Amino acid sequence: MEERIMWRFLERNAKEYPDLEAYRYLGRGETYEQVDEKSDILAKHLIKMGVKKGDRISAYIPPVPAFLLFFMATSKLGAILTPLDTRFKSTELTYTNDIAQPNVFIFQPFLESTQANFEEQVKEMLPQFQKNVKHYISLGETKIPKAVTMQSLLKDPLHELDDELEKRKKAAREEDPILIIFTTGTTGPPKATLLTHKSISSMCLNEARATKASPEDRVLCHFTPSHVAGSCEIVSTAVVGPITTVFLDHFNPKTTLDTVQNEKVTIWGQIPTMFQLEFVLPNFDDYDFSSVRLCIIAGEPPTKELVQRLQKIGQGHVITGWGLTETSGFATWTEIDDTFENLSNTVGKAAGDYKIKIVDMDNPKKELKTGEIGEIAVIGDCNMAGYFGNPEETKKTLLEGNMLLTGDVGYLREDGYLVLTARKKEIIRYAAYNIYPPEVEDYITKYPGVIQAAVVGVPDPMYTEVPWAIVRPNPWVEKKVTAEELIEYCKKGLADYKVPRRIIFKDNLPLTRVAKIDKKALKAEAIEIAKKEGKIK
Questions:
Q1: Can you list the alpha helix ranges (DSSP code H) found in 383-516?
Q2: What angle do CA 246, 250, 256 make, to 5 degrees?
Q3: Which one of 21, 320, 342, 529 is at 20 to 30 Å from 159 when CA atoms are compared?
């Protein structure tokens, strides 16, 4: 394969693995050959709608096979697919529409599994969309005026446009942008990250090697396509693999466990919060996970207890890595048979030929020495092309030499392994000290009766910021943990300035759209409490 073009991997699969299932969903599947044929048909219908290279196409859909079909279709045209979270309401949809300016809008009208009616939200947005959206494509029957269904499009192969489609394919280049992923906005307004054939396929090739993917594998996907985990790390890597994607159209702890068992999933990747929500189910140990050969932890630092628990699942292999939307997904990996110490304390080494640098947080031109804590920078083909429509932010983030500033903080060990300490914007500035929340959170979650903990900084007139901890207790234990005993526990194992000044208990911690703990919301809540109590103005 001369150039790393995403749809060329699909064509390879259709020729070399024609009978391999590209996906499984609701007990049925389709082969790579079928997906290639259907994506060709959809691509031709998009041509008929006037879609040109570089045009944006929004997809307001959950993790379902239609994402794979439309992503391959748009990539064949050099158009840019923009997946949108189905939890987005009018504010987020207006924001993303104003930036992406799509001329085609794909949507799921209704989702049977959750009884969610997305059509009503689309209907509400029609006046806002009319300035740029010319065509609507629904994944099912709909009442949206002039919308066509994907099923009706697939019935007409449009052979008269075969030559035009081939012409578009021949014009494809590695550097062509094919995907916009909006960042989750946990530390600021969401940015439209522009990813290319090269950036995505480069990351996927490294992931396939790191996970030792093979056509016998089945990988679970319950992450929304609007997140890099769903669109790139799982679905795109499955195409590059090739392996089979098992779609689950929403995350639910019980449904996830049922799917892993019934569909015989072999690669099971989640963020720690998801695993924790599944572990607390009373019948977790009754499930058959014998098909699972590899568990992947990412998105948040894992606790040692989590790693130990996962090593008892299936064949006992665990791997972790690190990356972000701007790196098209993973930029580092541990080894499949890595040590427990590396799995629980690091996020691995730079993937493939990527380079990881640690730079001064105030002067990124200054590279720090091994062991020194600073901002993590990535140099590699996985890096984004930039932020769509935002050259100022692009210039701040993507520096000369294709060096990407990630906003994450950590250090490199002598052996090349990367250790994360915090998000740059989540570091708590206590007088002259820096408090790294993951360190405190990891310590708190070791206490009996604690499931999750999030530590945030609250403004303080004397110390600049002080740490507060928001804790989710285990509802299944008889003896409930108290704030007083947690603070005393912290005093015994942490430096005095790291000890939380306040413990807040919550039955559930708020989550972002990819099930990470929403620290932005928790920080706002803590500040509001501090204001009401007169601690800050």
A1: 391-397, 437-444, 483-493
A2: 60
A3: 21
